[in-house]
Amino acid sequence: MPDRSESDSRSRSLLRRLRDTLATPGGGQDRLDRITSLIADSMGTHVCSIYLFRDPETLELCATEGLNPDSVHHTRMRLGEGLVGRVARTGVPVNTGNAPSEPGFRYMPETGEEIYSSFLGVPIQRVGERLGVLVVQSREAREFSEDELYGLEVVAMVLAEMTELGAFTGEHNGIGATHRFPVMFRGTTGQEGAAEGRVWLHEPRVVVTNPVGDDPEAEQHRLEEAVISLQAQIDEMLTASVAMDKDQRQVLEAYKMLAHSRGWVRRMGEDIALGLSAEAAVEKEQSSARARLEQSPDPYLRERLHDLDDLSNRLLRLLTGQGRDTGAELPENPVLIARNIGPAELLDYGRRLKGVVLEEGSVGSHAAIVARALAIPLVIHAKRITNEALNGDPILVDGDQGIVHLRPEETVAVAFRDKIAMAAEAQKRYADLRDLPATDLSGKTVALMMNAGLMADLPSLMSSGADGVGLFRTELQFLIRSRVPRRGELAALYKRVMDAADGKHVQFRTLDIGSDKVLPYMKPQDEPNPAMGWRAIRVGLDKPGVLRMQLQALLRAAEGRPLSVMFPFIATPDEFHEARAALLHERDREATRGRPVPAVLKIGAMLETPSLAFAPDSFFEACDFISIGGNDLKQFFFAADRENERVRRRYDTLDTAFLTFIERIIARCDVSHTALSFCGEDAGRPVEALTFAALGIHSLSMRPASIGPVKHLIRRADLDALRRVILAARKAGAPSVRPAVMAYLATL
Ligand code: PEP
Ligand code: MG
């Protein structure tokens, strides 16, 4: 057996020869042919073949030395079929001295391979993306050595990089041109709407242009330097992480362990000794660790994939000097693709984006809130899309279904455009209603307000025809900053909101943090159940400094105009009375300082916990208005986490029990003459909105895009007739009134 240094130098010389084929003129097929013969020659095998994906399910023999040349571009196999298909599916090499006896072996007579007993196949892959399979075969029945296996993996890595660089494109339908198939991703709706555009990767992938290293010592040195810088980066992040929560710190600790892992650095060193450049060595280890982790049944280990990717990408950026900003121009109609994104970053892109697709995220995440505020279609949980998508790829985002088509077939694109056109048509119809009231056939008018929280929302106040702002979520301004905003800043902002409202009613909600909304600069609470934890008014009352500052800002912004303030997540009358007293106290202080105070000050509570519906009459009497926060109220009524898609969808708003409960709140507000509105997401769903209106809620607050559809439906319906339908269904014992409501709508 040749000694290590001999096999290293043979491998280096092979890689250099491979690289030289890139520099020589000729088409993709020529190059592939030369490469298979070089590899067979260097490894002393009878056969070397390259199989590449034709489509995501099919592999094709694209070049061979040793098998029947006529089978090239004819022999195909499905993913998982035969030994080649197995390597492609699992990403794990197959090494056997007796291929025909291997489970799953499939004999392909046209290739003439029956005389070759030994088989070594390795995946051609980069960063979790399988491009094909590289195979060597020999007549004699022998297993290949570890060194040979390792050497072939290194060669496959170089092939993967060459494929990515487009070295093999050409005749035969662009062999080896990756990222060219249509792919559909099934995710979850974050924000409805449809968009067609071009991919814009938030974090562009690092391009490795030099997979082969000329001087192993120099490459090793570069790698070591980069690893030291990486370790320093992580140490710095850890030092700065005092204010982070336990989970975030744990992730950093895991990074630290990986970055200091001797095995990781040693394996990359071995790749370099075999002739890879430092960058290619990083990618090779990333790919093989990915393949291993993906096979793991342990979800914790699979989660570590992200850490590994992050770390490898950092290392690649250090090595290549490529930053996030590649200088590429935002394409026309950009659709942002990212693993995840923070609200501030999303706001920076703003309305320029046509759509957003995330691999992670959640319906209630800050990014989702911002996407909703900007009315940008958003799909979350689109797994692996950052691996597949390339900048500029055509993409269709179906926010309604949570589906994304990357590089779609023309037929799919045509059908999709029809859908967009129909939606635009409907929008036009709604625009025609803009200045008309939401009055039903019997003459009852429902106030349709909009939810807001960002300056970006304000233009919608006029364009949507909203009667006012029923919910101004003040926490968004806190979430998108890296420090607590100052009173002056807030006052200026609230003033701009009131100016833009131009006399229309605005209900400001005080800070609702905690639960899913964690401020980056506040020490997070390690709570077992944050949705029911220290959040919203509970924080405001326990640590009143920020609440007081916010109330002062609101009072000053009003400059004597009418002001409405509501407090979130009130669970007992005491909480409301205390918060109300704080606001009145601040108002009186402003008055004693000679500053103008609001001509009318309305103080309300958000009803988001069932307990409040059972509060004494005196509570309802003390409230100028009550706004039902349906998102939270529903989650606590059904004990179903609003962030957990699995349980959230189980419970319907038109469930008879929930509506009976809503009616109870309506009845209590009627008795005390307390104004009542509804401001959860359901207010923006036409059928739900109509049902609430029929039950007697005459003010609904929703996202601006929903105002048109809700108004359109209300104007066609008779709220009294629908009320009778609902009461009859309930009397008949229906567990849900949805079928009855839908039957009524069918008669319109
Ligand atoms: C609600 O809970 O319905 C609500 C409007 O508040 P948020 O969604 O901000 O919790
Ligand atoms: Mg709420």
From TrEMBL:
<keyword id="KW-0813">Transport</keyword>
<keyword id="KW-0963">Cytoplasm</keyword>
<keyword id="KW-0479">Metal-binding</keyword>
<dbReference type="InterPro" id="IPR036637">
    <property type="entry name" value="Phosphohistidine_dom_sf"/>
</dbReference>
<protein>
    <recommendedName>
        <fullName>phosphoenolpyruvate--protein phosphotransferase</fullName>
        <ecNumber>2.7.3.9</ecNumber>
    </recommendedName>
</protein>
<dbReference type="InterPro" id="IPR050499">
    <property type="entry name" value="PEP-utilizing_PTS_enzyme"/>
</dbReference>
<dbReference type="GO" id="GO:0005737">
    <property type="term" value="C:cytoplasm"/>
</dbReference>
<dbReference type="Pfam" id="PF05524">
    <property type="entry name" value="PEP-utilisers_N"/>
</dbReference>
<dbReference type="Pfam" id="PF02896">
    <property type="entry name" value="PEP-utilizers_C"/>
</dbReference>
<dbReference type="Pfam" id="PF00391">
    <property type="entry name" value="PEP-utilizers"/>
</dbReference>
<dbReference type="InterPro" id="IPR040442">
    <property type="entry name" value="Pyrv_kinase-like_dom_sf"/>
</dbReference>
<keyword id="KW-0808">Transferase</keyword>
<keyword id="KW-0460">Magnesium</keyword>
<keyword id="KW-0670">Pyruvate</keyword>
<dbReference type="GO" id="GO:0046872">
    <property type="term" value="F:metal ion binding"/>
</dbReference>
<dbReference type="InterPro" id="IPR006318">
    <property type="entry name" value="PTS_EI-like"/>
</dbReference>
<feature type="domain" description="GAF">
    <location>
        <begin position="27"/>
        <end position="173"/>
    </location>
</feature>
<keyword id="KW-0598">Phosphotransferase system</keyword>
<dbReference type="InterPro" id="IPR003018">
    <property type="entry name" value="GAF"/>
</dbReference>
<dbReference type="InterPro" id="IPR000121">
    <property type="entry name" value="PEP_util_C"/>
</dbReference>
<keyword id="KW-0418">Kinase</keyword>
<dbReference type="GO" id="GO:0016301">
    <property type="term" value="F:kinase activity"/>
</dbReference>
<dbReference type="InterPro" id="IPR008731">
    <property type="entry name" value="PTS_EIN"/>
</dbReference>
<comment type="similarity">
    <text>Belongs to the PEP-utilizing enzyme family.</text>
</comment>
<dbReference type="GO" id="GO:0009401">
    <property type="term" value="P:phosphoenolpyruvate-dependent sugar phosphotransferase system"/>
</dbReference>
<dbReference type="Pfam" id="PF13185">
    <property type="entry name" value="GAF_2"/>
</dbReference>
<keyword id="KW-0762">Sugar transport</keyword>
<dbReference type="GO" id="GO:0008965">
    <property type="term" value="F:phosphoenolpyruvate-protein phosphotransferase activity"/>
</dbReference>
<dbReference type="InterPro" id="IPR029016">
    <property type="entry name" value="GAF-like_dom_sf"/>
</dbReference>
<dbReference type="InterPro" id="IPR008279">
    <property type="entry name" value="PEP-util_enz_mobile_dom"/>
</dbReference>
<dbReference type="InterPro" id="IPR015813">
    <property type="entry name" value="Pyrv/PenolPyrv_kinase-like_dom"/>
</dbReference>
<dbReference type="InterPro" id="IPR036618">
    <property type="entry name" value="PtsI_HPr-bd_sf"/>
</dbReference>
